[in-house]
Amino acid sequence: MFSMLSTVVIVALSMTASVSAHCGVSPALGVTGTFTKADVQRVVAGSDCGSTNVAATIDSSTAVAADATGAFTVTANSFDPGSDGSSLMTALVDATGTGKSFASNVTITQNGNAVQSASASTQQIKAALPAGTKCAGGAAGNLCVVAFKTSAGFQNCVVVSQGAAAAATGAAAAA
């Protein structure tokens, strides 16, 4: 009986350990250094940025600059082939920058693949904030948080900056 129970527990734990994210978007909120498979999480209702503390990391995270039309580009990092590695995205924006008010859909103008053929790949995802969006988060009051979610149910957040500070951030990142 004990060996049967042990086998069930071991199998269950091994399945739990294998549920790590297979695709995420960078630059990711709260991630410094190289973006890895461990930086994204399964979707959890009411926790669009996973366990990342938005308030503590919004100003120190690398922001993506939105242009005057609200358009911006991020990188989808796929770690596994097949549909689990899908880089097909949907996204919501929290203009308050708190990570608590994801109320508006972000338009994806260039999306990723529903099924990945390679075990490790990247794709550019082009998106646009809804018309009239005013990012109000962060110390400068010009940051939004965008939650990207893959068709396989993995997600993470990205900081998007607007305005003159966004242009300066984009220029600094390009240098």
Helical content class:
10-25%
User: What's the pLDDT, averaged over the residues?
Assistant: 81
Number of strands: 10
What gap, in angstroms, lies between the N and C termini?
Answer: 64 Å
What CATH calls the topology is Immunoglobulin-like
CATH architecture: Sandwich
CATH class: Mainly Beta
Radius of gyration over C-alpha positions, nearest whole angstrom:
17 Å
Q: Helix-strand pattern, N to C?
A: HEEHEEEEEEEEH
Q: Which regions contain 5 or more consecutive residues with pLDDT less than 50?
A: 5-19, 165-175
Main sheet characteristics: 6 strands, mixed
Number of structural domains: 1
Describe the structure.
With 175 residues, the protein is an alpha+beta fold. It has one domain: Immunoglobulin-like (Sandwich). Helices cover 18% and strands 30% of the residues. The chain has 3 helices and 10 strands. The strands form 2 sheets. Strands 2, 3, 5, 6, 9 and 10 form a 6-stranded mixed sheet that branches. It has a 4-stranded antiparallel sheet with strand order 1-4-8-7, with no helix packed on it. A hairpin with a 3-residue loop joins strand 9 and strand 10. The longest helix is centred in the N-terminal third of the chain and has 16 residues. The C terminus is likely disordered.
